[in-house]
Amino acid sequence: MARRLRLQPSMSVVLGSWLRETFAPMLAMHRTKILSVGYDDVLLSTRTALLEREGYSVTSANTFREGLQRLKIHPYDLVILCHGIARKDRDEFARIVKLTHANAAVLMLELTNFEARQWADAVASSASPEEFLSSVSNLLSSRESHPFL
Q: Could you tell me where the beta strands, DSSP code E, fall in the chain?
């Protein structure tokens, strides 16, 4: 029969702190990093909450310039471009991502007109949270099985 180890409250705090400091960086390294770009703070925060609930590490940018600055600082596995950004701006942002971060996938969100975009890896509906999460998962899964796409 296993014996339970009882720790003093101060030891629990120290041990918990040590565990977080030791293992958090390793766990964070393996989390998929997503950059979500859009102009509407409510949509950005909703999208971030949905993705974080699924275990993704999400960074938001609410301007084109801020998104580009964040891309310079960190590599991302996926860049999501909101339907609220003008189409020409989304195309330009996706082009920059593809030219500077070849391993990053680009997902463009649309409310209607789901035609393929030249620089996007996928186009998905932003109307349904379930469809959005499914599109993210499918795109990331296909990139893991074919990393050079």
A: 33-37, 57-61, 78-81, 105-110, 122-125
